[in-house]
Amino acid sequence: MTAVTGEAPATGSGVLGQPLDSREDPQLLRGEATYVADIDLPRTAHMAILGSPVAHAKILSIETKAAEQLPGVLKVATAADFTDVMPLPCIWIPGGVESHFPPHPYGLPGARPVLTGDTVRHVGDPIAVVVAETPRQATAALAAIAVEYEPLPVVTRADEALAEGAPQLHEAVPGNLNAYWTCGDKDRTDAAIAEAEVTVELDLVNQRTINSPIEPRGAVGDYDAATGEYTLYASTQGPHNHRFLLSALVLGIPFNKLRVIAPTVGGSFGTKGYLYPDMALVLLLSKALGRPVKWVDTRTGLMNSTVQGRDHRQHVTLAGTRDGRITAVRCTSYANLGAYPSTIGPGVATALMGRSISGMYDIGAAFCEVYAAFTNTVSLGAQRGSGRAEAAFLMERLVDRYASEIGMDPAAVRRKNLVPKEKFPYDNGLGWTYDSGNYQLNFDRAIELSGYADMPARKAEARTRGKRLGVGLATYVAICGVGPSTRMSQEGMLGGTWESANIRVHPTGEVTVIVGSASTGQSHGTVFAQVAADELGIDPATVQVLEGDTQKAPYGQGTYGSRSYSMAAPAVALTARKIKSKLIRAGAVFLGIPEDKVVYEGGGVHEEGNEKNAKTFAELAMSMWYGWGLPAEIEPALDETTHFDPPDFNYPFGTHVAVVEIDELTGETEVVSYTAVDDAGHIGNPKIVLGQIEGSITHGLGQALMEAAVYDEQGLLVSSDLTTYALPRAADVPFFTLDKTVTPSPHNPLGAKGAGEIATVPPAAAVVNAVVDALSDLGVQHIDMPLTPEKVWRRLRGEAQ
Amino acid sequence: MNGRPEQFAAQPNELLVERLRDGLGLTGTKVGCDTGQCGTCVVRLDGRSVKSCLVLTASAAGGEVATIEGETTRGGELSGLQEALRQEHGTQCGFCTPGMVMALGELVENAADREAPTEPEIREWLTGNLCRCTGYHSVVRGVQRACATARSAAGQEV
């Protein structure tokens, strides 16, 4: 059953919303898709990067001569070779606060240099590169580069980095504090907490995790000396953003001299939208050597260089009445930005997290403060559900803690505090205005579907098998649809965040849709074809979709934050409407009737009441191509473009229920059932979204149960490969029970909300709530993630955290 | 190699995956990690699935190697397993997909001659292959569908 709370948008051919097979799948299943590592340009040379083996040190000297003489080596380069290259900038500086950054020319907040010359600040910090004839020769030569270090003290935790006497990372950043950022009403929140009948507090560690797309990153640079043009092939989720950042802000070359191509990209989940030194290096070295230069990362390299996620230490407080009415929530968070501000990391750690903490609840007072600090770890960035997952975790842990304190059922407390349907649009007091929602319907559906009422009996039954059963709820609101450009500028985002689409109708009636978005596995080719076909009333098989190449689409922003279907797809729909509108105007000319007598149907036009006076879509396309007989105000051909900048964000939401069983003997936690009811508004292709929801939940379960980036005291990433960093495997998860509610967003013509990663937001909270529920009779009020068997086993035996 | 003889001289330390990708241009086999964990490089050696990043090329001499390129001709009709995975959308970014297809082949090929594999058996079979996009669910459904189709074609009860 699917509960629907809104009308479906008017459709043409009716293919939108249908579970069409992904047209990308056959090529992927045959292993024929081309990823960066598969690109093989003639005369390609291969680059390897020397990363720092220590977390914090002054570089006293670098000796490269021995490496230069090794077989096959073409060039060894250090920071001294790139003194005229600007550092990689950060473009999301928390809005409205004083921020401290390492400097960048152009008055921008800077970030990291392409290679580090003076001080290394994390293990993996790139110091030198080798280019050789083969990848093995390049890697082998790294060992011959001699670097002399003077060790400096190391700090890897945000709270410790802010303490007096802590090691200092950047001269321009006093006390390692990038920004002190707040949102909400502090006075009102403090007062509500002071006056409250009940308050509960928790100290939470939202551990650092590694996104781990299965394809490591890679880049191929190809400079054409004849034209002065650069081509970058990269595993990127935002080729246009990378073009903008690299051309204007790093290399200082004209925009139209850089083409960025994203071939098939093997997963990203946020990490491949960031600007990394290797992207600039392959271009610079290609120019220097007159050959294409290729670099493909290793897994360990990825883990020591690609942005990592989450990483907040928080003290959180919730206030309420004895009868279950929440009156205030407050969060103090120490966010670990890593060694350098990544492209948008500081914004993720502040606005994306802080403005979301009140979730689906109607709370009178809320306040969040974030201390964003630099430490000797890999830079922080986005990760599937970024910011929103951290927010949902703290709120949903607090609600359970509160329910336990007042002796009320956690579901009843949640039900009582949901934002009522009639209050939308709803200002959450933290900076977001939720567009639409029917939270009660969604919540009740999840409670019913999960069999929540049967849990007491299931708990008793589990005990007879030596298992402790626990149930955990988590609700969430995820801000998506980034975004309204002006609003994002107020959040501190440099650059517009609109999305673009172009549609060309060819003379033979086939259609090409070109979007600025770029798939990292979301079957854009299938879904955008559905959108265009539906609007135009044509067969989606005749619609071709192009993306991922800045020479195909002139502009765009890319795929991030679950934005493509609520940003790029509306751009496609609006463009199709322009085409349709032009065909109606031209149709009047071709049919010799007034415009208001033209009926557009099934891709063609006919005269109202006279279906014989008609032109098919193909006939119209050919006529427009010829342009014969068109009046001056109607241009020939069909080629339209839209830049869609929505009036505001959109806010998907949902309720998840985790049921776990803990083995009394081993402490092992098994997720025995998982129910999720998500609301992403109108969905373009339910088959594709289903896969995204399932993958997202599994990702969230990974954080709850097994994933952690572990740094030792020296700042060494101990979990730096897949033997030491645990990802969920097929046997770690059951099939899920899934359903949806549908509340359209008023902020785009499709009524769409973000979908791709939203189901990553609540699982960690749901699972930890379930485990704490299972252990509650032992006095357990919280356990930090990941919930490894050892940790749970110790708690079962009464050990403190 | 996919039913055709290949003759070449391999370095003693050359890995089979390097030979496949760099030497023979068979780039359907992927490299996702450095430690034999991710399963994107799975091929079949003498009928058994192996991680080609853990096999020295020289040790495969005289053996029969099957890669994803041998499953179907370029652009050609999908195998039963591939078709079932397509119908269940058992792929997203597709990077882990060739390795999964090669790892699951044995399970599906024998499906007609034995009891249909249970869900835990399928999940166990998949533990050597990491996927970050799908969470495996659609892949498991794809295998169930492929086994059911194979059994049905052989006149077995599905």
Automatic annotation (TrEMBL), chain A:
One of its GO terms (molecular function) is iron ion binding. Residues 30-153 form the Aldehyde oxidase/xanthine dehydrogenase a/b hammerhead domain. InterPro entries: Ald_Oxase/Xan_DH_a/b, Ald_Oxase/Xan_DH_a/b_sf, Ald_Oxase/xanthine_DH-like, AldOxase/xan_DH_MoCoBD1, AldOxase/xan_DH_MoCoBD2, AldOxase/xan_DH_Mopterin-bd_sf. Residues 1-23 are annotated as: Disordered. Keywords: Molybdenum, Oxidoreductase. Pfam families: Ald_Xan_dh_C, MoCoBD_1, MoCoBD_2. It comes from the Bacteria. The keyword Amino-acid biosynthesis does not apply. PANTHER family: ALDEHYDE OXIDASE 1-RELATED, XANTHINE DEHYDROGENASE. This is Aldehyde oxidase.
